[in-house]
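Usage

Read records sequentially. Each one opens with the input sequence:
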Amino acid sequence: MGSAWLVGHVPSWLLLIGIVVFVTGLSLLVQVVVRREFSGLAGDEHNDVMRFAAGVIGLVFAFFIGFVVSAMWGQINAADGRARIEGASGVQLASRLHVFDEPDSDRVRNALLHYEEAAVIEWDAVAKGESYPPADQALNDLRSAYEQVQPKTDLQKTMLTSSFSDLDSLSQDRTQRVLQARTDVGPPWSLWAVIFLTAALLLGCAIVYGVEKPATHYTMVAILGVLVGTILFLVVMLSHPFIGEIATSPEPLREVIRVLSPNPP
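and closes with the structure output:
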């Protein structure tokens, strides 16, 4: 929950600066100690080995980070797709209400509006690892409202059948959204360990690389530290599909509320 709290409560620009400053500052601090305690590393005797090691580690780090980022970006796209389908199902339900008699239409409209409002509240609650039972109850009330509809014409019968189909789709997508919010919480500790280890090895190769001019050496390590910090920031931001600025949004659910509201904002 540590990364979830950071993504949910710290502005992205501040989080980026914080991670980059921490990684770069720590790297430069280690470099100061290494250059002072191991002055022999300023030569270039071991540079051939460091070039080879840095090339291999950099390649592995880039490939691994690309795989992780691609997988987590796919999770966000999947969450966004489900939210859009859930919202589209709600809009379809709302668009058919005029077909039913006024008592049935009003009852279903109120139940659908109540569910969508509860679903928006549930969105943030589930993203934080919590549950929101009123959303379950609102969905049950919505289904009950449709079950009470008494169609009198063939058109009403057809629209009621289609509405039940969209209601099933809405319920299924909502279930998948809740389950994904509870399970997609970023890489497990083992993957984080590999990310930190490869990043540390890459920075370590730059730190012990033999450069006689300190200014050049510090600049090289600082640039690499900024790069690694930026990549770590990206992984943290992508770790939570329902939290943060680049995560999927409950806007499709709010669109249903706007359609149903007599005086939409």
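Summary fields computed downstream for this record:
- Residues 213 and 261 are 68 Å apart (CA to CA).
- The mean pLDDT is 87.
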